[in-house]
Design brief:
The strands form 3 sheets. An 8-stranded mixed sheet has the order 4-1-9-10-11-12-13-14, with helices on both faces. The chain has a 4-stranded mixed sheet with strand order 3-2-7-8. The chain has a two-stranded parallel sheet with strand order 5-6. It has helices at 56-65, 80-92, 159-166, 201-208, 213-220, 262-275, 280-294, 307-315, 319-322, and strands at residues 17-22, 25-32, 48-55, 70-73, 75-77, 101-103, 110-116, 119-125, 145-152, 170-175, 196-197, 226-230, 236-240, 246-249. The longest helix has 15 residues, at 280-294. Helices cover 25% and strands 21% of the residues. Helix 1 crosses helix 6, helix 4 crosses helix 5 and helix 6 runs antiparallel to helix 7. By secondary structure, it is α/β, with parallel strands linked by helices.
Length: 354
């Protein structure tokens, strides 16, 4: 099923790209079905395993599967892992990799993720990619796009973020754990260029010196037009700093197989709803739904749902949720069942079709 969520708001003069992003692509190897964390000096067996592109690929695939024209600038290893990730993203997901490049002699970064007790533990290895030949920074210049997604880091501004905002892109940003422990909001140099900031509750409270996720969101809305704080099993809460509007939607309870990439999928769902000009509360609901659907599959990028999965969920949604998600009625056609979609598998590729 093909669905363009931005169809009602498109015009002939718009950019050819909906969302631009850049970052590191990992090969993810995911183990699930562990009864507990691995114990030193012992061998643990997992009941499930999957491999898929990871890192920034999680976000790129999630955006593309929701029908957004996605452009990714990234370095790819000159190895079988890099070849697999490139093929999975370009051929499998239809992501524009014209700004990406393969580096001879550079091996792909790898992450091993172990999912247990509703959480995950990761071990990663890789080396920073050398820049492409030439004096200019990478990426040289982001394409004109409706939106861009950035990952903020304390004390490290990215020139492309300011340029994307200058060109009219709405910049959506998340943030990682501050290893320095300072949690200085002023050190997030690119926050001033952002339309929306989407930290989790722990990050938001540390950056704002508050003890409540909702208070943290209100404080962040003084720094950025739209603050969204994800609260795990409690759902998410948002404050529009321009209008003062607030919205909160509880999480959908599901049996989670693997939480890898769920945060990226959430952001992709929120970006989709924002670009489609949906009400704030519907954006939160849709983002939460896409994240809930993703954790029921292996891996980050290839667990991301598309419109067939959303439509199938809506057709079988519990009665108590149908009112909150009634906006899906006009978005997804009835009678749709999910078709075949590339998923994470134990190996990166069989020699013969199976």
């Amino acid at each position: 099923m093909t669905l363009d969520p931005l169809g009602p708001v498109r015009d002939p003069q718009e950019p050819g790209c909906d969302v631009f992003l850049t970052g590191t692509v990992f090969l993810d190897i995911i183990f699930t079905g562990l009864d507990s964390a691995p114990v030193r000096g012992t061998e643990s067996w997992a009941r499930g395993m999957g491999s898929s592109p990871g890192g920034v690929a999680n976000m790129a695939a999630a955006l593309a599967r929701l029908g957004l024209r996605t452009s990714l600038a990234a370095a790819f290893g000159d190895d079988h892992y890099g070849e697999y990730c490139w093929d999975a993203l370009e051929q499998g997901e239809g992501i524009d990799l014209s700004m990406s490049h393969t580096l001879p002699g550079w091996h792909s970064p790898v992450t091993v993720s172990m999912a247990y007790e509703g959480e995950r533990t990761m071990v990663s290895h890789g080396h920073e990619a050398p820049p492409p030949a030439g004096p200019d920074p990478f990426p040289l210049c982001p394409p004109r796009a409706r939106a861009a997604v950035a990952s903020l880091a304390p004390g490290r501004g990215e020139p492309w973020v300011a340029e994307a905002a200058r060109q009219g892109s709405l910049v959506f940003a998340d943030v990682g754990w501050d290893e320095s422990g300072r949690w200085d909001l002023g050190a997030l140099d690119d926050l001033e260029h952002c339309e929306a900031f989407l930290p989790n509750a722990g990050e938001a409270m540390r950056y704002t010196r508050t003890d409540c996720p909702r208070a943290a969101a209100r404080a962040l809305a003084e720094k950025v037009p739209l603050a969204v704080v994800t609260m795990g099993a409690e759902g998410s809460y948002a404050v529009d700093g321009r209008t003062g509007e607030t919205a909160e939607v509880p999480a959908i309870v599901v049996d989670a197989l693997d939480p890898t990439g769920a945060g990226d999928v959430y952001v992709a769902g929120f970006v989709t709803g924002t670009l489609a000009e949906w009400p704030l509360v519907d954006r939160l609901a849709f983002a939460g739904l896409t994240a809930a659907l993703s954790v029921q599959e292996f891996g980050g990028s290839l667990s991301a749902p598309g419109w067939p999965e959303v439509a199938h969920w809506w057709q079988t949604a519990p009665a108590e949720l149908r009112g909150r998600y009634a906006f899906l009625e006009e978005l997804v056609p009835s009678g749709t069942t999910p078709g075949p979609r590339r998923r994470a598998v134990p190996t990166i590729g069989f020699r013969h079709p199976v």
